[in-house]
Design goal:
By secondary structure, this protein is α+β, with helices and mostly antiparallel strands. It is built from 8 helices and 7 strands. The relative contact order is 0.16.
Amino acid sequence: MALALSTDTPCVRDRVSPEEWQTRVDLAACYRLVAHFGWIDLIYNHISARVPGPEEHFLLNPYGFMFEEVTASSLVKIDLDGNVVMDTPFEVNAAGFTIHSAVHMARPDVACVIHTHTHAGMAVSAQEDGLLPLTQNALMFHGDRLAYHDYEGIAFDLTERERLIADLGDRFAMILRNHGLLACGRTIPEAFEILQNLEHACAAQIAAQAGGGPLITPSEAVCRHTADQFWSSTGDRGYGVRAWPAMLRLMNRHNPGYDV
């Protein structure tokens, strides 16, 4: 069955709470931002967001949409098992929700999970030493602030969830070996900004290695100090608070219509 374009999606604003609608708007903007920066893999990968409230419901992209087409109303509401819980003409890739559901089940502090398959992210995920402390962006994830999870095949097996969340622990970023990147956030803007830093770090690492010359690594003391600076500078606000309004303005200039 062919899916309708996002512009044909009936508006659901009057069917959801104001808090859910705001989450839908921010998540749709996040999808379009990920597309804008080229962190996409056709119609695959996902960004999930927790719906405010006690029901343990989540929002996911309609299967078959490009990220640049997602709107607040086209997002599909599902439960932890990937079952659709609100009437919609669209479907979801429930198997693709395996990774996201694992994080949301184990981490009630996480409101948003982003998973990507970018060239740089996959390249670093295939390197034995993983992310190297070569740039300021990379130092955000120095030490125990970055998790790793070994590849087990396409994430169809629900039993992998236990091992994935054990590897993630209480961290907000993970490299999925031979696979890609994962970023979490207490808010959608925070997840986006953490991902942006991780993507930049991976891209810079591949570029630096491609140069072929000797690489400079800061001292361990400087690496630890910089990581502490990153994670202490935001306080309770989390990442993304300052940058998110600018990101929305960017979308309003280049790809408006996400907020319908």
